[in-house]
Design goal:
Layout (H helix, E strand, L loop, with lengths): L2 H8 L4 E5 L9 H9 L7 E9 L2 E8 L6 H7 L6 E2 L2 H8 L16 E5 L8 E7 L2 E5 L1 H8 L2 E3 L4
Parallel strand pairs: 3-5, 5-8
Antiparallel strand pairs: 1-7, 2-3, 2-4, 6-7
């Protein structure tokens, strides 16, 4: 069990675990999940960390087939600007490895924005906390568990 799955269990949320064999040569983790699990690329979401100011990180959860708009994530979080967080810092703060960063069960709860396209689905897929592990979850459960907001943050 990962911290992400433990959080869902603890809060009695509905979820499904989906596993696949991760190819260590593949660094496009989200699209690998889409291909191996045969899912809609608009329904599989990646977890990205941004830096709003030194030492202030936030989370964006967006479809794997989209690009994050740094301007829109900054607007959503009422910040002057946002840049992509340093990879090592993202791993340290979340407690997860790149390609396995889940929005759930991070070591420290960060401000989180979920792209509003998630509202188009009864469930979406996010990383379960390690490479080769995704979780099917309801967008509104993510909003509640993460104290997050929906916002259009894709470019």
């Amino acid at each position: 069990m990962t911290p992400a799955i433990n959080l869902l269990k603890k809060n009695k949320c509905e979820y499904k675990i989906l596993k696949y064999e991760h190819d260590p040569l593949n660094t496009n983790y989200g699209l690998e999940a889409v291909e191996k699990l045969k899912l809609d690329e608009n329904q599989v979401f990646k977890t990205l960390l941004v830096e709003l100011s030194p030492k202030e990180l936030a989370v964006a959860v967006i479809p794997v087939c989209k690009q994050l708009s740094l301007k829109e994530i900054a607007n959503a979080l009422k910040s002057k600007k946002a840049i992509m967080a340093d990879k090592a810092e993202a791993q340290k703060v979340t407690g997860y490895l790149l390609g396995g960063i889940s929005p759930l069960g991070q070591k420290k709860r960060l401000k989180t924005i979920i792209d509003e396209s998630a509202k188009n689905y009864d469930c979406i897929y996010v990383s379960g906390g390690k490479r080769g592990l995704d979780i099917e979850v309801k967008p509104n459960d993510l909003i509640k568990l993460l104290n997050a907001n929906f916002y259009n943050v894709c470019a």
